[in-house]
Design a protein that fits this description.
Distance between the termini: 15 Å
CATH class of the largest domain: Alpha Beta
Number of strands: 6
Shape: globular
Order of helices and strands: EHHHHHEHEHEHEHEH
Number of helices: 10
Strand content: 5-15%
Length: 226
């Protein structure tokens, strides 16, 4: 039996926490708000990002302005900065091992599918990914099924065994999805939220880089010859 590795994208495979912080500060500055540091960002970051901006003092009308034209203000700013973001430490290696072992690597993300796939091509890992589960467009982002609901459907349609499925993410939402679907949860620090918030969600494992994922997989009987 082969495992399925389900990765969040932003902050998990892509090292873009600094990019989202920079995007957030650009937006805060545009509305005359005080900019924040990384620790504050990680204390407040949540999805949808309107939760983050509201917690930083932005008004509903300001958030509506930011969301106008399918969130063009956010997306255009973020994509500009994200074009130079690299993969997180050890991410490329674990994806290579998964491909060598004929295991499935799946991305489930709240991002938009086409920009995400463009990043996969830029980073040279498009062939490592079996499936990208993400929103179809800016207009549908956070307005259709949640990432947990979309993953549930994918698992059912592809007859994937939950007990052999690992979900790796940098926010509590991935741990909650794992608990709901019966998956094995792995939280990675250094992403969009603080270590204390990850710990409070009580994932099965907490890692600092993707290098630490292989021993976890081997402990479950997978990739022992890797």
């Amino acid at each position: 039996m082969k495992p399925a590795l389900v990765f969040d994208w932003n902050g998990t495979l892509l090292d873009d926490a600094h990019v989202l912080l920079q995007t957030t500060n650009t937006i805060l500055d545009r509305f005359g708000r005080r900019t924040i540091d990384m620790a504050t960002f990680r204390d407040h970051c949540d999805v949808p990002l309107s939760i983050l901006y509201r917690s930083l003092g932005m008004s509903d009308s300001e958030i509506a302005d930011m969301d106008r034209d399918a969130g063009a203000m956010f997306h255009d700013t973020y994509e500009h900065f994200a074009g130079k973001a690299d993969l997180r430490e050890g991410a490329r290696r674990i994806l290579e091992i998964a491909r060598q072992q004929d295991a499935s690597s799946i991305i489930v993300s709240n991002h938009i599918a086409e920009p995400l796939r463009s990043q996969l091509r830029r980073l040279g890992i498009n062939d490592y990914i079996n499936e990208v589960i993400a929103f179809e467009s800016r207009a549908t982002q956070f307005k259709s099924m949640t990432k947990g609901e979309r993953l549930r459907r994918y698992i059912q349609e592809n007859d994937i065994k939950p007990s052999a499925t690992f979900i790796i993410g940098d926010m509590p939402v991935e741990t909650n999805i794992a608990r709901d679907l019966g998956l094995i949860s792995v939280s990675i620090t250094g992403g969009f939220v603080s270590d204390s918030r990850l710990q409070a969600a009580e994932p099965d494992y907490i890692i600092r880089s993707h290098h630490e994922l292989l021993p976890i997989l081997q402990g479950h009987g997978f990739f022992r010859d890797a």
